[in-house]
UniProtKB/TrEMBL annotation:
Residues 146-173 form a coiled coil. This is PRKCA-binding protein. Pfam families: Arfaptin, PDZ. Its main location: cytoplasm. GO terms for biological process: dendritic spine maintenance; intracellular protein transport; positive regulation of receptor internalization; receptor clustering; regulation of Arp2/3 complex-mediated actin nucleation. It comes from Leptobrachium leishanense. GO terms for cellular component: cytoskeleton; neuron projection; perinuclear region of cytoplasm; plasma membrane; postsynaptic density; postsynaptic early endosome; synaptic vesicle; trans-Golgi network membrane. Residues 22-105 form the PDZ domain. GO terms for molecular function: actin binding; metal ion binding; phospholipid binding; protein domain specific binding; protein kinase C binding. PANTHER family: ARFAPTIN-RELATED, PRKCA-BINDING PROTEIN. Residues 144-328 form the AH domain.
């Protein structure tokens, strides 16, 4: 349509400034610089960079980016040429190639339109839907690199719930154990007073030993509590700091991921729109005036992809660190806690048992221990 006019349409830059520049890139062993080109004759007056591929001379140099216009190759202007012709010009140059360009000074906020925001919301909703549900609602699902980090977020929720329950149970156990220790201490004080006031030497000695046994149990209990308290502190740090920090990072990553997917979908829609209009023989106005709107979205997509890659790397590092903390601050302390709790019965069994055996030496005469003392001894030492 616009090609039939007797005059050329002026470029509609949408208020986006451009800055001319030149960059020299050294080709790799495959004789490429790592860019794809779009636009050009016969429908678009501008030739521009569609994508800069990773780990290529262009991406490593970092000067040119998606959306920048190519104005020349090795001093030769490319105005009016097709993208295939420009690609061959670059390919025919061996070694180093000089690219003349107009840098697109785009603000990413300009590309973040209401359409992008709505697409982002849609991706967030569709993320947790099954394929059948999404198809029934007529929603397309964009699956990015079979993302397992979403499942990792669910696992963190379950892990946090497990350790939260374990901490509450352990706190109740330790509180009860502390109260039991204080009870043993009270028993020790009572038996000590009885032993001091007991006129019979044998019975007095037995009461004093029994008082010492109860006090030893109380001291052991306090020592156990002092040993276990740092373990609870480590578990608390893991539960209330490490896990929430990782969950927050994953949520930020998901937000960046959905934004990147939104720009990818927007680029595809604009491509389809352009192909359809060309097939009908009616090129779009935006294409005939430099395709600046499309180039702006290309730039936004590239920057969103860079943020996505950085966030994914950050999340993977934090998950690895969290797994290490899980081993150091959760598994090891939990094992230690189990072992300490298992061993806490040893003094309470062995000390009263020795007293029981000693009590038998006093016989059944006038110097025998009172019946209630023997009963208490056998209760604490059933063996």
């Amino acid at each position: 349509m616009f090609t039939d006019l007797d005059y050329e349409l002026e470029e509609d830059k949408l208020g986006i400034p451009t800055v001319p520049g030149t960059v020299t890139l050294k080709k790799d062993h495959q004789n490429v610089i790592g860019i794809s080109i779009g636009g050009g004759a016969q429908h678009c007056p501008c030739l521009y960079i569609v994508q800069v591929f990773d780990n290529t001379p262009a991406s490593q140099d970092g000067t040119i980016a998606a959306g920048d216009e190519i104005t020349g190759v090795n001093g030769r202007p490319v105005k009016g040429k097709t993208k295939v012709e420009v690609a061959k010009m670059i390919q025919n140059v061996k070694g180093e190639v000089t690219i003349h360009y107009n840098k697109l000074q785009a603000d990413p906020k300009q590309g973040k339109s209401l359409d992008i925001v709505l697409k982002k919301v849609k991706h967030r909703l569709v993320e947790n839907m099954s394929s059948g549900t999404a198809d029934a609602l007529g929603l397309s699902r964009a699956i990015l690199c079979n993302d397992g980090l979403v499942k990792k977020l669910e696992e963190l929720e379950k892990t946090a719930e497990f350790y939260r329950g374990m901490m509450e149970h352990t706190k109740r156990l330790l509180r009860t154990f502390f109260e039991l220790s204080q009870t043993h201490r009270a028993f020790g004080d009572v038996f000590s007073v009885i032993g001091v006031r007991e006129p019979q030497p044998a019975a007095s000695e037995a009461f004093v030993k029994f008082a010492d046994a109860h006090r030893s149990i109380e001291k052991f209990g306090i020592g156990l509590l002092k040993t276990i308290k740092p373990m609870l502190s480590d578990l608390n740090t893991y539960l209330n700091k490490a896990i929430p920090d990782t969950k927050l990072t994953i949520r930020k990553y998901l937000d960046v991921k959905f934004e990147y997917l939104s720009y990818c979908l927007k680029v595809k829609e604009m491509d389809d729109e352009e192909y359809s209009s060309i097939a009908l023989g009616e090129p779009l106005y935006r294409v005939s005036t430099g395709n600046y709107e499309y180039r702006l979205i290309l730039r936004c997509r590239q920057e969103a992809r860079s943020r996505f890659a950085r966030m994914r790397k950050d999340v993977l590092e934090k998950i690895e660190l969290l797994d290490q903390k899980h081993g150091n601050k959760c598994v090891a302390p939990t094992t230690k806690l189990r072992n300490h709790t298992r061993r806490n019965g040893t003094p309470t069994k062995s000390l009263p048992r020795r007293l029981t055996l000693g009590a038998g030496n006093y016989g059944t005469g006038p110097a025998a221990l009172p019946k209630g003392v023997l009963i208490d001894l056998f209760i604490l030492s059933p063996e």
